[in-house]
Write a structure and sequence with these properties.
- This protein has 13 helices and twelve strands.
- It is α/β, with parallel strands linked by helices.
- It folds into two domains: about 210 residues, inorganic pyrophosphatase (n-terminal core), CATH 3.90.1640.10; about 120 residues, Roll (Diaminopimelate Epimerase, Chain A, domain 1).
- Helix 2 packs across helix 6, helix 3 runs parallel beside helix 6 and helix 6 crosses helix 8.
- It is elongated and about 70 Å long.
- Bound molecules: manganese (II) ion.
- Manganese (II) ion binds next to loops.
């Protein structure tokens, strides 16, 4: 608590940003001039993407151009779905030339979060992560208590009397949902207020589609495999999928099996590269997936997680399988040793 107050006081003194939404908006807009070409840098996730779109809207008639660029590859299918379906215009940071831009903005991040950001002189920084100090930008607005940076951008838009389009509202709405884990993680009243404001404008069917999109068509075959390998014993499901292209599919299948009634434990494994990856799921009530994972695999690899979800990664050479192959039966045998 003391730290928060200090941050606020520090920023207040330096940038005078602990102000009303209107004053913050004015402070932000003061940074820009009519003939500016603006680069908005983001570490692309739903919150950052939504914020960048909001900044584009705030600056539309106030500067010459706004370009959004991100250094990271967008791999999560939910995020790919968001970018494609909302047609978010994006470029990769390594493809833009910084000298083409007269102003640079960083949103939903701070320079020392990424080495590429550290090398850029930002004119404005808007973020909700813990304040990392030493921010040199002309305008800084860091509100660490906020659940989503999109909440802050909604406040800017409303202060500017700019009503978001359906696409922008959908992006902001989804961003607040993701960053607050549907309001089960830390958030403030402001997050709820912005969420309620967006509720009437956003397309919630589209949001549902972003949330659902987590499978490639090419991955459906693993469901077939996972189900044909499935072994059941004492309220537990076991399935070993063999070689997989990405361990993410193991998570999808474990989550899918966890929907089944009267199942206490789900363990799904696969081989990725030179490693065995095992995904654990249970209800987390008087059970701990994290503890079980480390009991079974802690001595031969990395293993751990939460009460309801855990993961183990074990180099194959540590399993001393000899010339035997790892199978669903092997998985069951290893697990049963450590369970009553
Ligand atoms: Mn965020």
């Amino acid at each position: 608590m003391a730290k928060k107050t200090k941050n606020c006081a520090f920023i207040k003194k330096k940038m005078n940003t602990c102000r009303s939404a209107r004053a913050r908006l004015e402070g932000f807009l003061e940074v820009f001039e009519k003939d500016d070409n603006v680069l908005v840098c983001i570490n692309a996730d739903p919150d950052a993407l939504a914020c960048a779109l909001a900044i584009k809207k705030l600056l539309r008639y106030r500067v010459k151009s706004v370009v959004i660029a991100h250094p990271n590859e967008i791999r999560r299918l939910n995020n790919v779905a968001m970018v494609e379906r909302l047609k978010i215009p994006l470029g990769r940071l390594h493809n833009v030339s910084l000298k083409d831009f007269t102003k640079k903005v960083l949103v939903d991040s701070q320079p020392n979060h990424l080495p590429v950001f550290e090398k850029i002189d930002f004119d404005a920084i808007i973020d909700h992560h813990p304040y990392t100090g030493g921010l040199e930008a002309a305008f800084v607005d860091v509100r660490s208590q906020y659940g989503a940076c999109s909440t802050m951008l909604v406040e800017y838009l409303r202060a500017a009397h700019l009503k978001p389009s359906v696409a922008l509202a959908t992006a902001l709405f989804y961003a607040i949902k993701v960053d607050t884990h549907d309001f089960s993680k830390q958030s403030v009243l402001a997050d709820g207020v912005s969420f309620r404001y967006l509720f009437n404008i956003a397309n919630r069917n589209l949001v549902k589609k972003f949330e659902l999109t987590d499978l490639r068509r090419s991955e459906l075959k693993y469901f077939h495999l996972g189900l044909s390998e499935l072994k059941y014993s004492k309220g537990r499901f076991y399935s070993h999928l063999g070689k997989v292209r990405s361990p993410d599919i193991l998570v999808n299948i474990a989550d899918f099996l966890n929907h089944v009634d009267k199942i206490d434990w789900v363990m799904v494994s696969g081989i990725h590269g030179e490693k065995l990856v095992v995904i654990f799921r249970c209800d987390g009530y008087r059970k701990s997936a994290g503890k079980l994972a480390s009991k079974i695999f802690g001595s031969v690899g990395s293993a751990g997680g939460h009460k309801e979800a855990a993961r183990a990664e074990v180099p194959l050479k540590n399993l001393s399988l000899g010339d035997k192959e790892f199978t669903t039966q092997t998985l069951k045998r290893l697990a049963t040793r450590h369970m009553k």
